[in-house]
Amino acid sequence: MSNKALGILISGRGSNMEAIIKASQANQINATVAVVISDKRDAKGIKIAKELGITTFVLDIKDFSTKQEYEDDICRILKGCSVDLVCLAGYMKIVGQTILESFKNRVINIHPSLLPAFRGLNAQKQALDYGVKFAGCSVHYVNDVLDGGPLILQDIVEVSGDDTEETLSQKILAKEHLIYPQAIQIVLESLSVK
């Protein structure tokens, strides 16, 4: 199977992005990270991506007249880098039809809950407020329903009585760094079959 190209969209610290880049560089996934795009100029992940030798772009939606123009530019960059699979890694914008149609069934995301439970923001807090005994993370395909696309891979963590939002987030994040590269490999293998 030939090496595929990944495009990663981020908004923040880029820890999942870093896990994907390192998995790629260690040949744990048959893919190269071709480009990282952030919607925030001060995203820590951009600095990390540059240090790891990855091409980066920052696109601020405020510099565009419409969301469609913003997403058209993202798609232009992704296509220019011959990206096969788009990975959302802490990307805090809802992906619109422009990207979803340009990369049909080739946009995936990681979410810090066992979907379909606790969609949207603050999933760890939602889990604690609900009193669950197990939480976790899910890698899923992105569609037009928030955190509602078909699941690819999930992993669980036990919630202890003294967990805070912070400690639970850290436990889940450690699992995210493990399963996101695994899920990418699963998706890439399914792409090469088609």
Strand content: 15-25%
Radius of gyration, in angstroms, nearest whole number:
16 Å
Distance between the termini: 12 Å
Major sheet: arrangement of strands: 3-2-1-4-5-6-7
Order of helices and strands: EHEHEHEHEHEEH
Shape: globular
User: Number of DSSP strands?
Assistant: 7
Mean pLDDT, rounded to whole units? 96
> How many strands, which pairing sense, and closed or not: the largest β-sheet?
7 strands, mixed
- Unreliable stretches: none
Number of helices: 6
Instruction: Classify the secondary structure makeup into a structural class.
Output: alpha/beta
Helical content (DSSP H or I, runs of 4+): 25-40%
Could you explain how this protein is built, in words?
By secondary structure, the chain is an alpha/beta fold. Helix content is 39%, strand content 23%. The chain is built from 6 helices and 7 strands, in the order E-H-E-H-E-H-E-H-E-H-E-E-H. Strands 3-2-1-4-5-6-7 form a 7-stranded mixed β-sheet, with helices on both faces. Helix 2 links the parallel strand 2 and strand 3. Helix 1 crosses helix 6. The longest helix is centred in the C-terminal third of the chain and has 29 residues, at 165-193. The chain starts with a strand and ends with a helix.
